[in-house]
Amino acid sequence: MTESGKTKQAKAGEKVGPGKYVCIDCGREIKIDSVDKDLVKCPTCACETYDCFPITHIRPDVKTPDDAKHPPKR
Ligand SMILES: [Zn+2]
Question: Is residue 17 part of a domain?
Fold first, then answer.
């Protein structure tokens, strides 16, 4: 089943992979840059549910969210 157009949600404690996670309660952004990191509870309001914005344009030479914003020249 595809959910195009719908924002995916993630819960605290899941291994969610690299991306940006926004608390559905207070809007706090959590950035995950490693595949091994668990999503933690929101440090601001202890909410456990986040909207999920995975990094979509992964290239072999783009390994961090920062690289994605400023792709290295080939
Ligand atoms: Zn929050």
Answer: yes
* Distance between Cα 5 and ligand 1 center (Å): 23
Q: Give the Å distance between the CA of 49 and the centre of ligand 1.
A: 8
Measured in Å, residue 66 CA sits from the centre of ligand 1 at 24
Which tens digit of pLDDT belongs to each residue from 19-70? Answer: 999 999 999 999 998 888 999 999 999 999 999 987 765 556 656 666 667 7
29 assigned to some structural domain: yes
Say if 26 falls within a structural domain: yes
User: What is the distance in A from the centroid of ligand 1 to the CA of 43?
Assistant: 7
Q: Which tokens is 58 given?
A: 């992964």
| CA dihedral over 49, 25, 53, 70, signed as positive or negative | negative
Question: How far is 50 from 60, CA to CA, in rounded Å?
Answer: 27
